Amino acid sequence: MFDLTVYVLTRNRSDLLIETLISIINQSNKNFCLVVSDNSTNNETKEILENYQYKHLINYIKRDGKLSGIEHLNLILSEVTTKYLMIFHDDDIMLPDMVEKLYTYLSTHSNLVAVACNAYMLKGDVFTLDKIVRVKDVLYDDVDKMVRNHMQRKNVPLFPSYMYNMDILKEEKLYYNRGQKYADAAFICSLLLIGKIFFISQPLFYYRIHSLQDSHSFDSKGYSQLYHYLIDISSFSKHDKDVTFFRLYNIYWNYVSNRNELSSYTFSRLLKLFLLKHNYILLLKLLIRKKN
Asked: How far apart are CA 290 and CA 122, in angstroms?
């Protein structure tokens, strides 16, 4: 009887799924239950897995295709029965020791609600040695440490890198009003209210960057909701330097990146705001955007 379940979330990406599954099946530690949770709007993934040579190693669940990303994640959190859980993406690729190293650390540290790891960038189909997070091993023992990373928009462990201890996590779930498409970030930060998270700086998987990712689009309302939630659960105030940067970043992407044209009035307002707050990085981006 396994005490770890590895779920692979998939939706209409059967062309990438098999490569992901191969990387999971080839793990050095094979003592886990592998589940493909298919929320596709078609039957392509189902048909491919029915003829897959390793289908006997996979537990396949077909969802109705109408679940939102948050609903899909919460459904998995509610139905898992093992002590440990991983939720992996259908477009990323595990390195051979990912499960082994995460499981070994988490299972030998009973005070941790989760353990996470670093990743290399996979740019389309090009494997690189570029690391997503550029810090050493970190123990997150209070929520402020993780919130600060989000406010600074750097060194944030990626969602598919986590393995959870369900005995501590229990009935925690994602909430739409805590960030909409960024609700996973709020979820991870909320875990630090009930336990600790350890980050392993060694890259243990490849995180694929491609044009079909949901993260390629920006949601200002969701970003604002995430900001308010992070303020609520941490000791930060809206006047802190890192919080100001977080808010300015939201303003920048809302008024600049999501609009085809930037009026002179909006441009002047943003120019004054960024100068007032001494945010020269966004100021430079604004000037380049206006010039182009």
From this structure: 31
Q: Tokens representing 29?
A: 């530690």
Q: Which residue has the higher pLDDT, 286 or 76?
A: 76
Nearest-angstrom CA–CA distance, 161 and 280: 33
For residue 200, give the 3-state DSSP assignment: strand
Strand partners, 86: 6, 163
Handedness of CA 6, 7, 13, 14 (dihedral sign): positive
CA distance 14 to 49: 9
Number of C-alpha atoms within 13 angstroms, CB side, residue 264? 0
| pLDDT, averaged across the chain | 88
Q: Which of 228, 289, 227 minimizes the C-alpha distance to 253?
A: 289
C-alpha–C-alpha distance, residues 225 and 145, integer Å = 19
Tokens of 171: 């009935």
Residue written as tokens 């094979």? 30
Under 8 Å between Cβ of 98 and 18? no
Which of 286, 238, 232 lies closest to 263, judged by CA?
A: 286
Q: pLDDT tens for residues 116-163?
A: 999 999 998 999 999 999 999 999 999 999 999 988 878 899 999 999
Q: How confident is the model at residue 291 (pLDDT cuts 50, 70, 90)?
A: very low
Residue type, 16: L
What pLDDT, in 10s, does the model give residues 213-229? 766 677 878 888 998 99
User: Cβ contacts of residue 129 below 8 Å, gap of 6+?
Assistant: 120
Are 171 and 80 a contacting pair, CB within 8 Å?
A: no
pTM value > 0.70: yes
